[in-house]
Amino acid sequence: MKFVKQMSLIFLLLVLSACATNTVKPLDNKTVSLKDTIKYMPKQSFNELGELVEYAPKENPYLAMDSRIDKGSVLLFIEAKKAKRNGDLKTAQQKLKVITNKDKSISGPWVMLGDINFENKKLKLAQQDYQQALEINSENVNAYIALARVQRVMGDFNLAQNTLERALALWPDFPEAHLNLGILYDLYLNKSQQAQQHMEAYLFLTQYKNPEVIAWLDEVKSRTGIEQSFIEVKVAAKNAVKPVENIEKAKG
């Protein structure tokens, strides 16, 4: 693959995974040890006859939560989401702050506030918003992805990796966590084999429906020399895991 094609592919993947490309001065990250993420790879299982069992992805714990939310807060959240989509970030922030002042038990609005601050390049404020979301609800998987993104942009690569590890500890079959780890390992931590493992997991969990990631994985394989890097799951998953890139629900 030619160099220009490789760079175009990397750019597409960065956009796909919501990873910003602009960076600021890195934080002191030398004392932060990387946690093990390979243990979260999909594993083979066999029945009593020794036959390979079809893989059943684990459920997203965030979507599985049963939450009751004030209807007024839901309507405000919908209005904030619409304003943000239309580029009216100020109105979106105002509506979200009404929700957070009214209801201290909802994490979703904090994630969107963090996204707005991130878009405005207010990285510290974005980080605080995502952390607040996780303090309210430690099962908000979107908050982990968003927090890892801002940590990566701030140059805190090890912390970003550990944040994604926390997401996988919560939901091992989280496709976006695997994909973002693949990006982080390959482009920022120089760990191609780990990158390959997590890209393979992402593609397996989403039933190989992303051609950009498939092409990128092929390029990584050309560097590692390994055709299949994690414990191979030969039987397809029962269902593709629905991506949760931006669920953004006003959920506790």
Could you explain the architecture of this structure?
By secondary structure, the chain is mainly alpha-helical. Helices cover 56% and strands 0% of the residues. The longest helix is centred in the first third of the chain and has 15 residues, at 71-85. The protein is globular, with a radius of gyration of 19 Å.
Descriptive terms for the model:
252 residues; mainly alpha; 11 helices; 56% helix; globular; disordered N terminus; disordered C terminus
Show the helix and strand layout.
Blueprint (H helix, E strand, L loop, with lengths): L2 H14 L44 H4 L6 H15 L3 H14 L5 H12 L3 H14 L4 H13 L3 H14 L4 H13 L4 H14 L5 H14 L28
Please outline what is shown here.
By secondary structure, this protein is an all-alpha fold.
Q: What is the succession of H and E elements?
A: HHHHHHHHHHH
Mean pLDDT over the full residue set: 83
Distance, first to last CA: 46 Å
Radius of gyration: 19 Å
Main β-sheet, in a few words? none
Bin the strand percentage: under 5%
Classify the helix fraction into a percent range.
55-70%
**Helix count from the secondary structure assignment:** 11
Q: What would you call the structural class?
A: mainly alpha
Low-confidence stretches: 1-27, 245-252
- Indicate the overall shape: globular
Number of strands: 0
